[in-house]
Design goal:
Aspartate Aminotransferase, domain 2; about 15% strand; 2 domains; 14 helices; alpha/beta; Aspartate Aminotransferase, domain 1; about 35% helix
């Protein structure tokens, strides 16, 4: 008998706070927030209170919680086999899902390597790129370096941290990391001094070309979050930047790794963000929405050119010696296949584009608040940056925790979001309705207004 089924919310809170070490959470300050069940876009805590999940359980839920079609697909797979290793064997469900991923991703990405999470997908891409240059027909063993962007976030394994650029997450581990060539954040809000908005794309690309021209003989790959840099504060790249990176990396014979862990599977209005600038990367990293936010899975897709560099008799040791116990798990693959079915049967991308247009119109009303410095959006990804001074774009002192305070206030309105410091993030399940999205924006409007009123001199 499960004794936990009879525990009170207070008893659960006590055990949660003392036993569970939460990610990206200062446990000395943690206040338990325990979700017991969910349905559609709604979460229900142990006290029965309802919240709109306005960040898709940290950017991964696609079609809503407890979707009957997804549940049935998972159950049906469990009647066959729960897990089959990908080490030298396979199963029909995983094979089918790999084939579907190849069919829907940008052209040329014909080979799928499964892992368990987004950081692992990036780690795989980094290792594949390194090994590729060492064992292709015309080896280039000096190509051992990577280019990555300021404030990039690619996960929390040591390889993905090395190409990450958010210091507050990673500076403790610097002695363990490999060096990375860092280029400027392609920000369209805080522009470089003397650079106009219509000039910034060329400005940023000129910097990239200078680095490639100087060091391309030693650079294995450039790693980028396409279109939107997530943990940087939902920074939106200027139009043409991604296409420019693709052109330059081809020109200087450097691989392009696109990390679509956060932006893939419809978030930006197209199935993959790369599509918006017709970019075909050499390696593509997917996770989060890959199983509609149901089960842990990720994938790294590679071109045939990269794949071929790993083909040889075993004794030549060109095998990709990397793997994860649960990689290619058939239950997760079944969820992934069912999610792709729903994209068609529920016309998910059509809803994304309708709701994105609605969101654009509704967010304009938030500019009336003096602390709203910038509102930026791609599809159903939106960031509202709060600043101490709108004219100078001066941020708030981090110790004031303005973003977290407003998000705490939002819980009173039945809306859950998790901020990126003082950037309020709106990234709901792609199935969100017009009424539900209005409720989210109304709640944010009220919470910001109350904060401003309470802090007014």
């Amino acid at each position: 008998m499960n004794d936990f089924a009879n525990l009170s919310p207070d008893e659960l809170n006590k055990i949660d706070k003392s036993r569970v070490w939460h990610a990206f959470t200062q446990m000395s300050e943690y206040q338990p927030f325990i979700i017991e069940r969910a349905d559609g876009v709604y979460l229900y805590d142990v006290d029965g209170k309802q919240y709109i999940d306005a960040v898709s359980s940290v950017w991964c839920n696609v079609h809503g919680h407890c979707h009957p079609y997804l549940n049935e697909a998972i159950y049906a797979q469990l009647q066959k086999v729960a897990h089959v290793t990908s080490l030298g064997m396979s199963n029909p469900t995983t094979i089918e899902f790999a084939n579907q991923l190849v069919n829907i991703t940008p052209d040329g990405l014909n080979h799928v390597f499964f892992s368990g999470d987004g950081a692992s997908a990036v780690e795989v891409a980094l290792k594949m790129a390194f090994q590729y240059w060492h064992q292709r027909e015309n080896p280039r063993p000096l190509k051992t370096k990577y280019i990555a962007l300021e404030l990039a976030y690619h996960g929390d394994t040591l390889g993905s941290v090395s190409v990450g650029g958010v210091k507050r997450f990673h500076e403790m581990f610097e002695p363990l990391l490999f060096d990375c060539i860092r280029i400027d954040l392609p920000d369209t809000y805080r522009l470089p001094e003397g650079i106009a908005a219509d000039e910034c794309c060329n400005h940023y690309l000129e910097q990239v070309e200078a680095v490639l021209k100087s060091d391309h003989e030693e650079i294995a790959a450039l790693v980028v979050e396409p279109i939107v840099q997530g943990a940087a504060g939902l920074v939106m790249q200027p139009a043409g930047y991604l296409a420019g990176l693709r052109k330059l990396t081809r020109q200087y014979d450097v691989l392009l790794i696109c990390d679509e862990v956060a932006v893939g599977f419809g978030r930006t209005g197209t199935m993959f963000a790369c599509e918006q600038e017709d970019v075909q990367p050499d390696l593509l990293c997917l996770a989060k929405g890959i199983t509609a936010g149901y089960l842990a899975m990720s994938a790294t897709l590679a071109t045939t050119q990269i794949w071929n560099a790993f083909l040889a008799p075993s004794h030549q040791a060109k095998t990709f010696f990397h793997g994860h116990t649960y990689a290619g798990n058939p239950v997760a693959a079944a969820a992934g296949i069912a999610s792709l079915d729903l994209f068609k049967t529920e016309a998910t991308l059509d809803n994304v584009n309708r709701r994105a247009k609605q969101l654009t119109e509704r967010l304009e009303t938030l500019s009336k608040h003096e602390i709203v410095g910038d509102i930026r959006q791609r599809g159903l990804i939106a960031g509202i940056e709060l600043v101490a001074d709108r004219e100078s774009k001066q941020p708030f002192d981090a110790q004031l925790s303005v973003g977290p305070k407003i998000c705490k206030q939002l819980l009173r309105y039945g809306v859950w979001i998790r901020p990126l410091r003082d950037v309020l993030v709106i990234m709901p399940p792609l199935c969100i309705s017009e009424e539900q999205l209005n409720e989210v924006v109304d709640a944010i409007d009220n919470a910001i207004g109350e904060f401003c009123q309470n802090c007014a001199p």
